[in-house]
Amino acid sequence: MKRQISFGQALATVVGSVIGAGVFFKIGTITAQTGSTSMTLFVWILAGIISIASGLTISEIAASLKINGAIKYLDYTYGRVWGFLFGWAQMIVYFPAQIGALSSIFGVQFVSLFGIKARYSNLIAILLVLFLLGINLIGTKFSSKMQSVITILKIIPIALIIIWGLFNPAKIPAPIIPLTVGTGHSFPTAISQGLLSALFAFEGWIVVTNLANEVKNPEKDLSRAIILGLSAITLIYVLINYTFMTVLPIDQLTNNNNAAFQASMKLFGQFGGKLVTVGILISVYGAVNAFMLTGMRTPYILAQDNLLPFSNKIGKANIHTGVPVVGAFIVDAIAIVMILLGNFTVLTDMLVFVMWTFNTMLSVAVIILRKREPELKRPFKVPWYPIIPIISVIGGIFIVVSTIINQFVLSIIGLTLLGLPIYYYMQKKNN
C-alpha cells in the first residue's frame, strides 16, 4: 500500500471516528447517573484523561514498531492468537456494529428532518452504507480527503452551540464546584456509571493504527494525530456538555435524548432544531466514513498472514487504488445485516468489552517491551513513564471488570468463542 495519508488526514480520521452521535445523546444518560452538573463534567474530564493516557501509551508502540496496526502490535508482544482475536472481533463485531448502528441513527434523523415515513429509515441507512462503500472504493486518498472535509463540517454546528452557549446572557447556574452528586445518588456509583457512559463516547480512536502503513510519516504523525485528536475531543465534549447544562436545567436533561435539540431551540429559536439535526447527520456521516475507511483494512491484515479462509482473495488490494476491496465488502455486508436485524445493544456491549480488553493489553505491552527490548528505537516515548501507562491500564481494567460483572457470559463469548475455532482451523490447515 502507498504512503499517501498526511498528518491532517490521520488527525481527521481520529476525530471523525470518535465524534459521532454520542456528543449529542450522552448528556441525558450521564446526568441521570450523576444527578449533578459538577459530577457530569467531572466524568467527562476523567474519561478524557483516561483516553489521552491510553493514546499516549499506545502511541509509543505505534511509533516504535514498523508494523501495521494494533493487530500486529499484539502479535509482536503476546503471540499471534491475540492479534487474531482482536482482528476477528473488529471484523465480525466492532466495525460492522459501528457502521450499522451509526447508519441507523443517520436514517432515523434523515427521515425526521425531511418528513419521510419512519419505515424508510432502514432503507436510508443501507443506502448510506452503499454510497460510502462506493466512495471508499474510488481510493484511499479520495476518501481520506473527504474525511478531512467532513470533520471540519461536523465541528461547525458543535462550535456554534458552544460559542452561543458560552456567551448566552440567559445562562442558568451550572456549578462546577464543589464536586457533588444528586439526591439519591451515591458518589462511587455516580462516578463508575457516569465514567462508563462517557468512555463509550471516546471509543474508536485506535482504528487509525490500521492506517500505519499508509501514513506518510508514521513515526511522528501517527502519535501526533492520536494525542492531538483525543485532546481536542475532550475539550469539545466538556464545553458542549457545559453549554447544555447552562441552557437547560438538569431535571430537563436527565434521560432526555433530545437535549441537544431542545437546547439549540432555546439558543437559536425554531431554526436551532433543524441546525442540530443537520449537524447530527454530518457528524454521523463522517463517523461512518471513518469506520469504513479503517475497518476494511482489518480483514486485509488478517488475510496477509493467511489467518482467514480465502485469504488469497481477501488479502489483495486493488492495484490502482490500493483499496482492499474484498475486505470492504465483508465488513459492509455484515453491517447491512445488522441494520436489518435492528438491535445493536448486545453487539455494542460485546464490542466495548472486546476493545477495552485489547486496549488494556496494548498499554501493558508498552511496559513489557520497555523491559524486554530496552534497545528498541522509540521515536516517541510516553511521557511521565510509568504513571501515564498505569492510568491507562487502570481505566481499561475498570471497563473490563464492569462489563464482566454485568454480562459475564456475553463478554467471554465475545472474546474467545467467536474467533478461536477459525484460528485453530487455519493453523491446522496452514501446517
Defining traits:
single chain; 431 residues; mainly alpha; Amino acid/polyamine transporter I; 19 helices; 76% helix; globular
Cα-atom Rg, whole angstroms? 21 Å
Structural class: mainly alpha
Spatial gap, N to C terminus? 28 Å
CATH class: Mainly Alpha
Shape: globular
Q: And the CATH topology?
A: Amino acid/polyamine transporter I
Query: How many DSSP helices?
Result: 19
Q: How many structural units, i.e. domains?
A: 1
Helix share, percent: over 70%
**What string, H for helix and E for strand, traces the elements in order?**
HHHHHHHHHHHHHHHHHHH
Number of beta strands: 0
Please identify which CATH superfamily we are dealing with.
Amino acid/polyamine transporter I
Q: Report the portion of residues in β strands.
A: under 5%
Give an overview in words.
The chain has 431 residues and is mainly α. The protein has a single domain (7-430), classed as Amino acid/polyamine transporter I (Up-down Bundle). Helices cover 76% and strands 0% of the residues. It has 19 helices and no strands. Helix 5 packs antiparallel against helix 16 (345-372). It is globular, with a radius of gyration of 21 Å. 54% of the residues are buried. The model has no long low-confidence stretch (mean pLDDT 82). One of its GO terms (molecular function) is L-amino acid transmembrane transporter activity. Keywords: Membrane, Transmembrane, Transmembrane helix. One of its GO terms (cellular component) is membrane.
